[in-house]
């Protein structure tokens, strides 16, 4: 409990401090400024990480396709064959589209060699460098 303090002729200060409206508005303005600086960087870093994960997933799938071809002499009929034969644990989720079924598969020139020669992202839109995800 604060004890009253005499600060002048007949006026007492009770020591019950609080923030004025101006002080609260200044603090809120500072927080808003910091958020306006940090938010774009946050979303930029999320997009950057999604693209890094997409590149890694594509490399993993392509490596599994090459190993499958090296072992069997032909490419798998579907991506599910890579899981069935334990070349990968599961089909990864495309981080941009958020789906495991959006991968675009490319068949080899010779249909007798199998069904999936290469894989690309089925996500719509362009990467930060301007190239479409479907060209990765």
Please provide a written account of the structure:
The chain is mostly helical and 136 residues long. It has a domain at 56-135. It is built from two helices and four strands. The strands form two sheets. Strands 1-2 form a two-stranded antiparallel ribbon. Strand 1 (5-8) and strand 2 form a beta hairpin. The chain starts with a strand and ends in a 16-residue tail after the last strand. Keywords: Membrane, Methylation, Transmembrane, Transmembrane helix. It comes from Sulfuricella denitrificans (strain DSM 22764 / NBRC 105220 / skB26). InterPro entries: Bac_GSPG_pilin, N_methyl_site, Pilin-like, T2SS_protein-GspG_C. Residues 42-86 form the Type II secretion system protein GspG C-terminal domain. This is Type II secretion system protein G.
Strand arrangement, major sheet: 1-2
Strand elements, count: 4
* C-alpha termini separation: 68 Å
Instruction: Please report the number of helical segments.
Output: 2
Helix fraction by DSSP (H/I, runs of at least 4):
40-55%
Q: What's the gyration radius in Å?
A: 30 Å
Uncertain residue ranges: none
Largest sheet report: 2 strands, antiparallel
Shape: rod-shaped
What share of the residues does DSSP label as strand, in percent? Answer: 5-15%
Mean pLDDT: 90
Q: In terms of structural class, how would the helical and strand content be classed?
A: mainly alpha
Topology as a string of helices (H) and strands (E): EEHHEE
């Amino acid at each position: 409990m604060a004890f009253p303090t005499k600060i002048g002729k007949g006026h007492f200060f009770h020591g019950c401090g609080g923030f004025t409206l101006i002080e609260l508005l200044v603090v809120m303005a500072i927080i808003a400024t910091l958020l306006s600086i940090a938010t774009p960087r946050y979303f930029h870093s999320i997009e950057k990480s999604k693209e890094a994960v997409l590149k890694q997933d594509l490399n993993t799938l392509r490596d599994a396709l090459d190993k499958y071809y090296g072992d069997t002499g032909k490419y798998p009929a579907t991506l599910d064959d890579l899981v069935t034969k334990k070349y990968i644990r599961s089909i990864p989720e495309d981080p941009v589209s958020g789906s495991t079924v959006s991968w675009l598969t490319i068949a080899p020139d010779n249909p007798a060699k199998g069904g999936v020669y290469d894989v690309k992202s089925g996500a719509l839109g362009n990467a930060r460098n301007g190239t479409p995800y479907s060209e990765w």
